[in-house]
């Protein structure tokens, strides 16, 4: 389920981020966010002997870049309630801000109960990747230009 969720998020948010920054900057953002997420996860789980594998930090970086680049974009969200399902359009800043908050709070809670043999979700990789994606999106943002003035001969 985690892998399917990652692929869904990459499909939904990755296309817009790649279109905004281009292929090369998107690749840099993806790889550097994955690296930042992995480093934060390893630092905060230094006592763990469980190997870590996955692209969650990189995909979280794409979400962070989307958060900065398209905060007012509307995200169609499925709301399940027992046997009924509704869709509602919410601003990206709300959807992704809530997602980030869940990652951070859960990661913090897991620090208190982690064990050297327990596996699971690399919450801090999500946090580190998201923050790096935000930073890189701000760094990659095109410079604002003033109005173009033509001088005619």
Can you describe this structure in just a few lines?
By secondary structure, the chain is mainly α. It has helices spanning 2-21, 23-44, 56-69, 92-113, 123-140; strands at residues 74-81, 84-91. The protein has one domain (2-45, 55-70, 83-114, 122-140).
Describe the structure.
The chain is mainly alpha-helical. It has one domain. The protein is built from 5 helices and 2 strands, in the order H-H-H-E-E-H-H. Strand 1 (about 75-80) and strand 2 form a beta hairpin. The relative contact order is 0.20. The mean pLDDT is about 90.
Keyphrases for this structure?
153 residues; mainly alpha; two-stranded antiparallel sheet; 5 helices; 2 strands; 10% strand
Alpha-beta classification: mainly alpha
Largest sheet: 2 strands, antiparallel
Share in β-strands: 5-15%
State the share of residues found in helices, binned by percent: 55-70%
Tally of contiguous helical segments: 5
Shape descriptor: globular
Mean pLDDT: 88
How many independent structural domains?
1
């Amino acid at each position: 389920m985690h892998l399917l969720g990652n692929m869904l998020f990459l499909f939904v948010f990755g296309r817009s981020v790649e279109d905004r920054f281009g292929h090369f900057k998107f690749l840099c953002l993806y790889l550097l966010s994955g690296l930042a997420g992995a480093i934060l996860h390893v630092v905060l789980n230094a006592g763990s002997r469980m190997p870590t594998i996955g692209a969650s930090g990189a995909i979280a970086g794409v979400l962070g870049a989307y958060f900065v680049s398209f905060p007012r974009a509307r995200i169609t969200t499925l709301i399940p309630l027992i046997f009924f399902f509704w869709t509602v359009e919410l601003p990206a800043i709300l959807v992704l801000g809530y997602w980030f908050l869940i990652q951070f709070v859960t990661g913090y809670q897991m620090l208190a109960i982690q064990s050297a043999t327990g596996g699971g979700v690399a919450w801090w990789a999500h946090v580190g990747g998201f923050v790096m994606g935000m930073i890189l999106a701000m760094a990659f943002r095109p410079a604002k230009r003033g109005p173009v003035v033509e001088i005619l001969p």
